[in-house]
Amino acid sequence: MTLVFATNNAHKLEEVRQILPSAYVVLSLKDIGFLSEIEETGDTLQANSLLKAQTVWDWISTHPSDKQIDGVFADDTGLEIPVLNNEPGVRTARWAGDEHNDAANRQKALTLLKDKNDRKAHFRTIITLISRFDLNKDIMIEQMEGRVDGCIADKEYGNKGFGYDSVFIPDGYQYTFAQLPAEVKNSISHRARAVEKLKKRLL
After folding, report:
1. What is the set of active-site residues?
2. What's the pLDDT tens digit per position in 27-50?
3. What angle do CA 151, 94, 155 make, to 5 degrees?
4. Which residue among 5, 19, 147, 183 has the highest number of C-beta atoms inside a 10 angstrom radius?
5. DSSP string spanning 79-93?
6. The pTM is what?
7. Is-contact 35 22, C-beta < 8 A?
């Protein structure tokens, strides 16, 4: 079964490929020749996830390929910090500005929480799957959510991962995502939990 993951983020792609069984071929946008930038104009994670999946699905339907595509899925992830009114939320990737700047985003979180005792935070990932596994039926659109709770560290720790990994400590651990081995992170992360739900849907 061949699926398109609507991303060119190498970290996300590798993470998802490690979670899904090897029977599933997961292609990136680059793999199918989709080179456009998808503007995330939704005001919720659900809306952005759907927007990305629908855009790629529609593109595939008008660009014949020798690859048999069985489905498209897209994710949108947000870090939500309750004491900061659940910011950055849908603006997680661009919190410190219009460009993706992981270091600036992490520094903003640390600065805003500098004098806060409550450092609780959680990640949510929404995956939208668009598929037509039964050619006699209309396409199906399904969404699934993964969440992991934790807190923001007092400074950056570790050099693995990406995004906010070096400042996020998941509940039950003393280390940030950036300090944990990939196999541990991939078993407990928000994206892992959403992808596990995706896997169950595909089986």
Report:
1. 76
2. 999 999 999 989 889 999 999 999
3. 35
4. 5
5. EEEGGGTTEEGGGGG
6. 0.89
7. no
